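Q: Given only this backbone (249 positions), what sequence would you predict?
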């Protein structure tokens, strides 16, 4: 088997590469930081191809696909993404649009391109990385939460289409709570609760992906959050979320 992982230079992406390599799966690792990818590749025992690329560009997503489409890829993991924390009106629009390009447009483009190939051979796994943020609005991280809601809902809709087609292609969406990665530094936040271990999240996600689980939420405490928020009035939920976000800043 062979897997392509975006955002593979650090965090969950790098740990997913380690988990898959330990299971004997060859890898194509994609990120902007070639040095980190090459360092990671040296750790791994399976065949690894490193591709330095910024996939926030739709053109580059197409370029990436055309570069690897003959590689007979079995697993696509859309992990690349980042967040920003501040009042919506204070975040620079160019940074927000970059986030939308990476968190949404790259996922949309690569999912569509590889899904078509997977459906032709009637096998394959897609794992899109969203967040618990996708289940609610997120004042002070408004755009980030919105991007993850997009990824979550897109993945669920595709899942149902595949089921109705009786396809053997599987799509899953990972929705972790706080994870101890570089995300915190980039978003300039400090989580109010201790983040989960990235490697443990990666192991859990890969295991559930192969079991064709639709929504993957590591940690029992995090699993109950989507259930609880169904019963919280919307305006109260906004106030609670705002207070939680303020603690991160």
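A: Predicted residues:
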């Amino acid at each position: 088997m062979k897997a392509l992982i975006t955002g593979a230079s650090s965090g969950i992406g790098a740990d997913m590469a380690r988990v898959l390599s330990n299971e004997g799966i060859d890898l194509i690792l994609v990120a902007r930081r070639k040095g980190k990818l090459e360092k990671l590749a040296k750790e791994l025992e399976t065949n690894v191809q490193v591709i330095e690329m910024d996939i926030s560009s739709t053109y580059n997503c197409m370029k990436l696909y055309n570069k690897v489409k003959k590689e007979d890829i079995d697993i696509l993991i859309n992990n690349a993404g980042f967040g920003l924390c501040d009042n919506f009106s204070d975040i620079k629009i160019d940074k927000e649009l970059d986030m939308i390009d990476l968190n949404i447009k790259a996922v949309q483009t690569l999912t569509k391109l590889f899904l078509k190939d997977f459906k032709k051979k009637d096998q394959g796994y897609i794992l899109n990385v969203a967040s618990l943020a996708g289940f609610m609005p997120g004042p002070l991280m408004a755009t980030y939460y919105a991007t993850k809601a997009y990824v979550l809902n897109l993945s669920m809709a595709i899942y149902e289409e595949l089921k109705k087609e009786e396809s053997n292609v599987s799509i899953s969406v990972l929705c972790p709570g706080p994870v101890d990665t570089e995300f915190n530094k980039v978003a300039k936040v400090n989580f109010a609760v201790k983040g989960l271990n990235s490697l443990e999240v990666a192991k859990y996600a890969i295991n559930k992906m192969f079991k064709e689980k639709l929504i993957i939420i590591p940690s029992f405490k995090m699993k109950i959050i989507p259930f609880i928020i169904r019963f919280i009035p919307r305006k109260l939920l906004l106030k609670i979320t705002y207070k939680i976000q303020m603690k991160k800043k």
